[in-house]
Every structure is written in C-alpha cells, then in structure tokens.
Specification:
single chain, mainly alpha, Serine Threonine Protein Phosphatase 5, Tetratricopeptide repeat, 8 helices, 77% helix, 0% strand, disordered N terminus
Length: 195
C-alpha cells in the first residue's frame, strides 16, 4: 500500500510536467496561428505566457524558431517597439542563428530610427532565411518540399539587390518573414498529402 502512495504522486508529477510542456507548444502554435491570421493582440496572449514559462522553447520543425522571435513579432505588429526590441535582442542572445529574430529586430530598429544597424540586421535576417532554404533544398529526400518554386528566395534576392528606402525594406521584410513562417507549416501539410 505504501508503494502505491509513492507511485501515484510520481505519476501525477510526470503528467504535470508533460502537460506543461505541451501547453507551451500549444500556446506557441496558437500564437503563430494568430500572427498568420493578422491577430497580433491575440498572439501576445498566447506567446507572452509561453515565453515566460520556457524562453528557450523552439517550434519542433526542421526550422526551429524560438518563442521569443514570435513574441517580438507580435509586439512589433502591435506597435510596442520598445518591448519588441527588448524581446528580439534577448532572442538573439538565446540563439544567434534564428533568422526571424534578426529580421524583426532589424525592422524594429528601422522603425525607431536606427537606420544603419536596422538595415544590417534586416538584411542579415533575409540572407539567413535564404541560406536556410538553400541548405534545406540540398536534402534530396525532403528538400524539394521547401519553397519549391523559389518564390521566397527570389523575393529575398530581389529585395537585397534593390535600392529600397527604409519603409520599402520594412514592408518587404515583414512580408518575407510572414511567408517564411507560413512555409514551415506548408511543408508539413505537403508531407502529409504525399506520404
């Protein structure tokens, strides 16, 4: 009988830990969905608590973007530039290879008048997205599913080659960042259809 009392609390604790992890993942996915459907205020309601519980959380896909990048985007899209900058700088500290963190930090810097660093970060984020897609494309097993018509990469290359003013670069960066995030989900759906 005593063993049962010790086993039950252990099982209960394990289930709490597992449900806590799935809650963060579920909240991040709900936040991503809100961003993808133009509801950044709703995204904040999901992403802020998720980032507080696990600031190191990354989406469990081939391209692993951190919760802080999504939270920074949500702050950016709601006009909370100070919060966006703070969160995105933290996102880069957590993962310097997160392309969306650099992209969105660059955009917030451009919006707040830090032109030189903003352009540098934005362009670095765009190059990183391009390089990520090029690298994945080399995978002969599943790489063909990613940006199959090179729409995102061609858009990036045109953007980087053009002499865009700051507002045009911001608009292009926001569009490409959203397309890249949506591509992560599209690949999963393409795999489900073909498999």
């Amino acid at each position: 009988m005593r063993t049962i009392r010790f086993i039950v609390p252990s099982v209960f604790l394990v289930s709490l830990v597992i449900s806590g992890c799935s809650t963060v993942g579920g909240d991040v996915q709900a936040g991503r969905n809100a961003l993808q459907t133009g509801r950044p205020n709703d995204a904040l309601g999901y992403l802020a608590p998720a980032a507080e519980v696990d600031p190191n959380y990354k989406i469990p896909y081939r391209v692993q973007i951190g919760v802080s990048s999504y939270l920074g985007r949500a702050y950016l899209e709601t006009g909370k530039d100070t919060e966006a900058r703070r969160i995105l700088e933290r996102a880069i500290q957590l993962d310097n290879d997160d392309p969306l963190a650099h992209l969105y930090l660059g955009i917030v810097l451009l919006k707040t008048g830090e032109r030189e660093r903003g352009r540098k970060e934005t362009e670095a984020g765009l190059r990183s997205i391009n390089d990520t897609l090029d690298y994945i494309q080399e995978d002969l097993v599943s790489g063909f599913r990613w940006d199959p018509n090179m729409q995102i990469r061609n858009d990036i290359r045109r953007t980087l080659a053009a002499k865009l003013d700051d507002s045009q670069l911001i608009m292009a960066g926001e569009r490409i960042g959203a397309e890249f995030d949506e591509e992560i989900d599209k690949v999963s759906r393409r795999r489900d259809i073909r498999d």
